[in-house]
Amino acid sequence: MGVRQHLAVAAAVVTAGAVLAMSPPAMAAPAAVAQTVQTASAWVSPGKTLKFGAKGSVVKVLQTRLRELGYLPGKIDGRYGGSTQSAVWAFQKVNGIKPTSTIASKTWRALESPKLPKVLVPNGKPTRAEVNLTTQILVLYVKGRIKLISHISSGSGVPYVEYATWNGTRQRFSGDARTPTGNFKTTWRRDGWHKSYLGQLYNPIFFNGGIAFHGALSVPLYPASHGCVRLPMHVAEVLPGLLGKGVPVHVRGRFQR
After folding, report:
1. Where are the bilayer-spanning segments (predicted)?
2. Which of 143, 197, 209, 214 is spaced 20 to 30 A from 203 at the CA atom?
């Protein structure tokens, strides 16, 4: 099957739910994903190896497929950049593949027969956020269906000491950089960059005291935050329009270094 045919197949695959309005204009949120895994007959991969920085129609096939499955690859522009890489990492982690920026046979096969993320709270509210510290994944459910799956970086667990000017005076802050497990709810939020005593947070949505979901310029493949849940910047642009106030947030697991 040629690339043009693959694009036609990808465009023909319909996922459950309505596509959300763009937020921001250049970034569309994924449609809700039905709680069934699409079979290999519904989508056939190009099978061409892609590396970070690749361009072209095969990258568009990849980006379209990721969005159909609930991952956010950024713009469907045929450019394999950082936004698409973070979506690839999330997909690979959910499917038990060691995260890598190279798209080869194992990842293409998984895209043909994808797995769903592990449900952490089977009896949870239909609309909720689940944070899996073991796999470093965020899953947002809306009305019982997956709306978004994202790569994250949570608290490093490493004790820290930071000095920052806060309320006009230089102060010392220390802690163990944990993202506590438990059941919480989203509370207050800020638009754009918000200065905290431990750094800058983009579009933060707080759910446990000073711990928030927020965009960050660095979201590595290991826990690196002071305790917040770091998100890729393009995901943090969309999440506030999907995750309201008072929504349950369930944090489970433990990252194994």
Report:
1. none
2. 143
Q: What whole-number distance in Å separates Cα of residue 70 and Cα of residue 82?
A: 17
Chain center to CA of 132: 11
For residue 185, give both structure tokens.
């709810």
Indicate if 78 and 150 belong to the same structural domain. Answer: no
What is the DSSP code string of 94-148? HTT----S-B-HHHHHHHHSPPPPPPS-TTS-SSEEEEETTTTEEEEEETTEEEE
The answer to whether 118 and 131 have CB atoms below 8 angstroms apart is: no
Task: For residue 166, give the 3-state DSSP assignment.
Answer: strand
* pLDDT one-digit tens code per residue, 163-218: 666 567 776 666 677 999 999 999 999 999 998 867 789 999 999 998 999 999 99
The reply to whether 139 and 104 lie within a common domain is no
228 part of the active site: yes
What backbone phi and psi angles, to 5 degrees, belong to 117?
Answer: -60, 150
Catalytic residue chosen out of the listed positions 6, 151, 226, 228: 228
Q: Which of 6, 151, 214, 226 is catalytic?
A: 214
Single pTM value for the model: 0.82
250 is catalytic: no
Name the domain count of the chain.
Answer: 2
Q: Are residues 148 and 197 in the same domain?
A: yes
Cα 108 from Cα 44, distance rounded (Å):
9
Domain of 210, in residue numbers: 128-252
